[in-house]
Design a protein that fits this description.
By secondary structure, the chain is an alpha+beta fold. The protein has two domains: 10-42; 46-158, no CATH class. Helix content is 18%, strand content 43%. It is built from one helix and ten strands, in the order αββββββββββ. The protein has one helix spanning 15-43, and strands at residues 50-55, 60-66, 70-77, 84-89, 94-100, 103-112, 115-123, 129-137, 140-146, 153-154. The strands form two sheets. A five-stranded antiparallel beta sheet has the order 4-3-2-1-10, with no helix packed on it. A five-stranded antiparallel beta sheet has the order 5-6-7-8-9, with no helix packed on it. A hairpin with a 2-residue loop joins β8 (129-137) and β9. The chain is globular and about 80 Å long.
């Protein structure tokens, strides 16, 4: 005895229903693929659009991305859903560029209500390099997270962000 297994979409006896069922299932699959693509495109950031990026020793990453008139801020475990995702008007994200004798610092400030995320990197006057994320509420520093200097991309001065006074 030969046992034939028919695909799930051919298990109806009416040929018109088979075609209709296949068509509807195809539309559903294509719609979900496009929705996933749109979601990924909204949260992805290409190198030219990257304002700031770094990884931490706890396998977390932060990305600040130029999306035209908007800027996105993402923070979380590498390869997982972000813990924090913000979308801000570009005019509300502030760049700070400081240079002096023996030092240079470049920072991006992204605010979310009373909390400001300051992402900075540069070279101190003693020649040492640094990269970190500082979380500030009002005038109180809530946390400073050190970044891997070798993973840091800081292009705060290249994206026409308003500069601090």
């Amino acid at each position: 005895m030969l046992l034939l297994i028919r695909p799930f979409f051919l298990q109806t006896r009416n040929p018109k229903m088979k075609i209709k069922s296949l068509f509807i299932k195809s539309i559903l699959v294509l719609t979900s693929v496009f929705m996933v693509s749109a979601y990924a495109d909204d949260k992805s950031c290409s190198y030219p659009d990257t304002i700031f990026y770094c990884t931490t020793k706890n396998f977390k990453e932060v990305t600040v991305c130029d999306k035209g008139n908007q800027v996105t801020y993402q923070f979380g475990k590498i390869g997982q859903k972000e813990e924090i995702f913000l979308t801000k008007n570009k005019k509300d994200v502030i760049a700070e560029i400081s240079q002096g004798r023996g030092y240079n610092i470049s920072a991006v400030n992204v605010s979310n209500g009373k909390v400001t995320y300051t992402l900075s990197s540069g070279q101190r006057d003693d020649g040492s390099e640094f990269s970190d994320i500082t979380v500030i509420q009002g005038s109180k520093i809530l946390a400073t997270i050190k970044c891997d200097i070798n993973s840091t991309i800081n292009k705060a001065g290249e994206h026409n962000l308003p500069e601090a006074n």
